[in-house]
UniProtKB/TrEMBL annotation:
<dbReference type="GO" id="GO:0030170">
    <property type="term" value="F:pyridoxal phosphate binding"/>
</dbReference>
<keyword id="KW-0028">Amino-acid biosynthesis</keyword>
<comment type="pathway">
    <text>Amino-acid biosynthesis; L-tryptophan biosynthesis; L-tryptophan from chorismate: step 5/5.</text>
</comment>
<dbReference type="Pfam" id="PF00291">
    <property type="entry name" value="PALP"/>
</dbReference>
<keyword id="KW-0663">Pyridoxal phosphate</keyword>
<dbReference type="GO" id="GO:0005737">
    <property type="term" value="C:cytoplasm"/>
</dbReference>
<dbReference type="GO" id="GO:0052684">
    <property type="term" value="F:L-serine hydro-lyase (adding indole, L-tryptophan-forming) activity"/>
</dbReference>
<comment type="function">
    <text>The beta subunit is responsible for the synthesis of L-tryptophan from indole and L-serine.</text>
</comment>
<keyword id="KW-0822">Tryptophan biosynthesis</keyword>
<dbReference type="InterPro" id="IPR023026">
    <property type="entry name" value="Trp_synth_beta/beta-like"/>
</dbReference>
<protein>
    <recommendedName>
        <fullName>Tryptophan synthase beta chain</fullName>
        <ecNumber>4.2.1.20</ecNumber>
    </recommendedName>
</protein>
<keyword id="KW-0057">Aromatic amino acid biosynthesis</keyword>
<comment type="subunit">
    <text>Tetramer of two alpha and two beta chains.</text>
</comment>
<feature type="modified residue" description="N6-(pyridoxal phosphate)lysine">
    <location>
        <position position="124"/>
    </location>
</feature>
<dbReference type="InterPro" id="IPR006316">
    <property type="entry name" value="Trp_synth_b-like"/>
</dbReference>
<comment type="similarity">
    <text>Belongs to the TrpB family.</text>
</comment>
<dbReference type="InterPro" id="IPR006653">
    <property type="entry name" value="Trp_synth_b_CS"/>
</dbReference>
Length: 436
């Protein structure tokens, strides 16, 4: 699989879905909204509870992303600059896990789609470079954001450096103290990283006043990053998961996987992805769901979430805020409540109280199912995968691996399983060390 800039020229051939040939970076993002049997409930204004207008979002996001948030067009063209950046690590490999199959003694064929080949080691740059691009085109000079374990902060810092923007990141206090490497990654890219809650914002000061020893949460850090963007006309805010435009950008994962499977004459029976805010799961699974809805394919999708933060399997489906201070729009989603502070599980990227509205809606419609995985079982699966395939999965990704391994162990026939391996665990080795 080559990654030279030549590969990002428009593909000479497309299949009947309009998906590019597998050896090339996709030309378009895929939008599940075009194929849903019922539209996804709209985001609401936090005070009026009326559907959001583009003007409501303009202080935080560029118009191109606001349009992508609500579009129902099936295909959205990927700007050439973004395709060229994608070509630094895309297409990502789809690999058959032959040694894992053997170790499990399963008749199933197991493939993994590996997003750990990106420069920061996860799927998050797929949306980071797109968001930085549209902001740069609109003349914005700085992006603010929050991060948990640091994958998103590192991804956005990298994207901002590639596109000439400043980047300011609020990182959940517990991770800021315990996991310094991704902060070093952010700083290497030129990003600035603060622990959250901080005394730099009004919402941060209020949270510190309420609980000076708080270890922070993603919801608190979002409040700070949103406030910092809203009070600076040259700055916008960027979110690494949950929103429709993020899932749209991540659809390159599933489109490539579909094309790669087509090329080798395989059809996925079941797809496993880990679910925190829902972006890598949606990115991998939605192109498969689109094929189910349009062409009567029957690929099943299983969202794998941590038992310690089970928004899909235990949360309520209702309108809720994305942050603690209640500054964000109201999103209809599966939620554990905006004030839920998850226990400090190792998979930092899965510690969010809500689930993407589009994933939540698809779950309500019965288009996908969900399971909750205990941390012990997730790490056991991660170690088993590492010993069979060599790659040490990110702690988040181990939840998908655990779901797939349990399924493969029980399989009695030669079905085809696809695992979304959202990232590698090289910067999370202390968590593996504790487990081993
Ligand atoms: C952030 C992250 C996740 C969780 O986020 P989603 O939006 O649910 O994809 C999963 N895996 C990795 C490697 C991450 O960095």
């Amino acid at each position: 699989m080559t990654t030279t800039p030549d590969d990002v020229r428009p593909a000479p051939r497309t299949d009947p879905l309009g998906v590019v040939v597998p050896s090339s970076v996709p030309t378009h993002w895929y939008n599940l909204a075009a194929d849903l049997p019922e539209p996804c409930p709209p985001a609401l204004h936090p005070s009026t509870r009326e559907p959001l207008t583009p003007d409501d979002l303009a202080p935080l996001f560029p118009m191109a992303l606001i349009a992508q948030e609500v579009t129902t067009e099936r295909w959205v063209e990927i700007p050439q600059t973004v395709r060229e950046l994608y070509a630094l690590w895309r297409p990502s490999p789809l690999v058959r896990a032959v040694r894992l199959e053997r170790a499990l003694g399963t008749p199933a064929r197991i493939y993994y789609k590996y997003e750990g080949v990106s420069p920061v080691g996860s799927h998050k740059p797929n949306t980071a470079v797109a968001q930085a691009y549209y902001n740069a085109v609109e003349g914005i000079t700085k992006l603010t954001t929050e991060t948990g374990a640091g994958q998103w902060g590192a991804s956005l810092s990298m994207a901002c450096s590639l596109l000439g923007l400043e980047c300011e990141v609020w990182q959940v206090r517990a991770s800021y103290d315990a996991k310094p490497y991704r902060r070093m990654q952010m700083e290497t890219y030129g990003g600035v990283c603060h622990p959250s809650p901080s005394d730099l914002t009004e919402s941060g000061r209020a949270m510190l006043a309420a609980d000076p020893d708080t270890t922070g949460s993603l919801g608190m850090a979002i409040s700070e990053a949103v406030e910092a963007a809203a009070t600076n006309p040259a700055a916008h805010y960027a979110l690494g998961s949950v929103l429709n435009h993020v899932l749209l950008h991540q659809s390159v994962i599933g489109q490539e996987a579909l094309a790669q499977l087509d090329e080798i004459g395989e059809t996925a029976d079941v797809v496993f992805g880990c679910a925190g805010g829902g972006s890598n799961l949606g990115g991998l699974a939605f192109p498969f769901l689109g094929r189910n809805l349009r062409d009567g394919a029957t690929t099943r999708v299983v969202a794998c979430e941590p038992a310690a933060c089970p928004s899909l399997t235990q949360g309520e489906y209702r309108y809720d805020f994305g942050d603690v201070a209640g500054l964000t729009p109201l999103l209809k989603m599966h939620t554990l409540g905006k004030d839920f502070v998850p226990p400090p599980i190792h998979a930092g990227g899965l510690r969010y109280h809500g689930m993407a509205p589009m994933v939540s809606h698809a779950y309500e419609l019965g288009l996908l199912s969900a399971i909750a995985v205990e941390q012990e079982d997730a790490f056991a699966a991660g170690v088993e995968f590492a010993r069979a395939e060599g790659i040490i999965p990110a702690p988040e990704s181990t939840h998908a691996v655990a779901g797939a391994i349990a399924h493969a162990r029980a399989a009695t026939e030669a079905e085809t399983i696809v695992i979304g391996l959202s990232g590698n665990g090289i910067l999370d080795l202390p968590a593996y060390h504790q487990y081993v």
